[in-house]
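pasting for ref. prot 1 ->
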Amino acid sequence: MEESLGETISLAASDRHSLTAYTAGDAPRGLVVLQEIFGVNEHIRSVVDRFAAQGFSTIAPALFDRIEPGIELGYEAADVERGREFKGYVSTGDALKDITASADVLLDLEMPVAVIGYCWGGSLAWACSSRMPGLTAAVGYYGGEIAKMKDETPKCPVMLHFGETDHAIPMTDVDAVKAAHPGIPVHTYPAGHGFSCDARGSFDAESHSKALDRTLVFLNELMSI
């Protein structure tokens, strides 16, 4: 197990909901990491740490704190079911309030801020791109609800990543997103859902590496690094 580089802080959303967030890094550009349906668990904290090492001030809000504090799940079948249940208790609107509270920590320091999300967080990253002001960029990995929100218009540059054998996201959905937004880079990989999570059996190292390289080039170009 890697030693954590960051710390957990407390935030208040606009509706006075109190939540925690895991943060790491001290750089002049910000990145908000949006969780999967498993909470801000060890894996998501490692993602925060890794992006901090890449030169970002990085923060991951605990979106499940609206249910109860400290929810962290693994990746077994029972965890997947619990995660799906928990996700159903948190509306997109409430999640955006918590994400905004996290982004504001970075925006208040007058730095460019992007969001990146995985699974549920990938869908939320897309929603952020169209509904949250002030973002420099958004990156979404295998967001299953993006196709349902394809008619929304991003207010910042967006990059999307999908697995070609994703059991939860048919390629017809990916094609629909591409058709609705031909100017957005939408990359697909010979992999399944969760291919970028090295804690899951679906992890695909080659696809993960290629997607990460593309993401970093995209963010670096937009965030003046």
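and prot 2 ->
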Amino acid sequence: MPTTLAIFSHNENAYSETFIQAHRNLPFEIKFYYGGFMPNYLDGQSISQNKWTNTFQRRKASFLHPENATLTDGELALISSLKKNRVAVVLAEYGVMGATVLRVCRALALPLLVHFHGYDASVTSILNEYDQRYREMFLYAHSVFSVSHAMTEQLAAMGCPRSKIIYNPYGPDDRFFDIRPSYITSHFVAIGRFVDKKAPYFTLLAFQKVLEQCPEAKLTIAGDGPLWNTCLNLVDYLKIGDSVQLPGAINREQWIKFLSNGIAFVQHSLTAENGDSEGTPVAILEAQAAGLPVISTFHAGIADVVINDETGLLTEEKDVEGMAGNMLRIINEDTLAQKLGSNGKKRIQENYTITKHLEMLQNLIEQAIVK
């Protein structure tokens, strides 16, 4: 009988969280819980219980363990569902999720593995609010996954024992390796949430400078988010609407088409005012797997996977002039895009595949069960 793995996610199917969807392909019997940081749905069905069941369950649980008397209704419902489904191990997506379900795992003596992804290890308010709960979680957790070297250092500074931190960056879907860009256009492409840490407004400002020397250039930034309308207004203000597309959220097939017809991937990532920073952006891995050079910043995990002047071109955060210069280099220097893109595809194939990522997770989950 296969081992049952519970994956806890606050979203059922967020388009920007392809890495979580990939984890559902792990070779276990998967029970996918979602619906906030105290999950209340399992594979489309509510796990909520009536108050009488919760009262009885709370009294029964606290008879042998008095600390269980304070379990919430949500925790009790999750405990009941995990027991019913014979779950053997839990993978919590995001540190906040791990901290929130800690008491549930502890009550059932279930091994807990926690996968940090970005904001959960960087946003100042989150770090302040969850400081003590993170420390308790670090002590209990079997493994804590980091997706960048910068995040590894941050987790250690937060109190996680280095012996428990596992560096395990994502990998792109294998289909991206089949893409063969033509490199014959001056079309720059990007995809991602329109949020401060991705700073799409700086990408637009850099592209405006590119247009001054290369008016035939094009830019597409796919995705949505709170800054989408602001960026649309900026495009209008800069009078570059004929050269810029902001199509909103797109599907994978559309993204593959953009990559196939692009000359480079662009993203001006930075640390936001609230501390929010990237982990290792999946879109950057996908672009490199497709064979496009990456034009970005020395930020978080980006510098782990993009080698400056070898697989892409990086500048310091907020260096708009530098980013514009790198975009112009891609346009003006013959074969540069193809050279950097080819190097990037090879490096991702050798070091950052989804197979490697999932194998690492599988091995640690199996170790947690045995232990």
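The chain has a mean pLDDT of 93.
The chain has 15 helices and 14 strands.
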